[in-house]
Amino acid sequence: MSLLVRTWNVFHGNAVPPERDAFLEQMVALALADDPDVLCLQEVPVWALARLGEWSGATAVGVVAQRPRVGPLPWPAEAGRAVTDLHHGLLRSAFTGQANAILVPRRHRLLGEDALVLNPPAFRRAQARSLELDFVARLAWAKERRVCQAVRIELADGGTLALANLHATSYGADDRIADAELRRAAAFLETFARDGEPAALAGDTNIEPGRSATLGQLVADGFSPPAAGIDQILVRGLHASAPQPWPKERRTVAGRVLSDHAPVDLVLEPTVG
């Protein structure tokens, strides 16, 4: 039985270019139209976590990265949604916060879940010393919390898959920040997965393969080769197809391009080797 795994940074539901309205529910419907076995999402507004199960009919597991807030003050997710509805293209995640989510159709069963903050203060301090980051880089890294979530899925054929979904920090002046978070996410998946259990690491890494020491190390450790961009699905313990980003036409609906990222697909074959 082949398994289709998909990852998509949904850009807070925005089109490209961003418009007054958002299209998150339509994006979820599009991403699930061909019935993938796993859908990993990043940049999900926090208010939408409560609606993903209803929209999709799937089991939805979400984890909040950046909490909704007004300036430094937290506030309700629904308040953030109401304000952002005034103009999604201008406000984006300013008041809604953002989250990661994993959607799994009900023919598979979730056996467990966990989450890890990718850039907690102690980790940032240690890495900043090691990487000799300047003050501006340290401030930028502290601006927004990033997370990696992990789930264990019991598949319809009785096997299991440990899968992690991450969204790393984007700091264009220094790729090493994203790479440090990717390395931390991979270590988290390693501890979450059972001995010999197939494992997959998916999401928005915010670093391209040619610039990432971690992606190279993961391939050396037995993970499948990465895609060309920053959105990745890496797999160990199962035969995997090459990751395939969607062409722009596939995410164009009613003349608008949905999200500034393309979904990426990867097909797994349940043969250990």
Could you give the topology of this structure?
Blueprint: E1 3-9, E2 15-16, H1 24-32, E3 38-44, H2 52-56, E4 59-66, E5 69-70, E6 73-74, H3 77-84, H4 88-91, E7 98-104, E8 109-117, H5 121-131, H6 135-142, E9 147-154, E10 160-167, H7 176-192, E11 199-204, H8 213-220, E12 231-236, E13 239-240, E14 244-245, E15 252-253, E16 256-258, E17 264-269
Parallel strand pairs: 1-3, 10-11
Antiparallel strand pairs: 1-17, 2-16, 3-7, 4-7, 5-6, 8-9, 9-10, 11-12, 13-17, 14-17, 15-16
Helix pairs in contact: 7-8
3D architecture notes:
Helix content is about 25%, strand content about 30%. By secondary structure, the protein is α+β, with helices and mostly antiparallel strands. The mean pLDDT is about 95. Helix 7 runs parallel beside helix 8 (about 215-220). The chain has a single domain, classed as Endonuclease/exonuclease/phosphatase (Deoxyribonuclease I, Chain A), CATH 3.60.10.10. The strands form 4 sheets. Strands 1, 3, 4, 7, 13, 14 and 17 form a 7-stranded mixed sheet that branches. The chain has a 5-stranded mixed sheet with strand order 8-9-10-11-12, covered by helices on one side. It is globular and about 45 Å long. A hairpin with a 2-residue loop joins strand 15 and strand 16 (about 255-260). It has 8 helices and 17 strands.
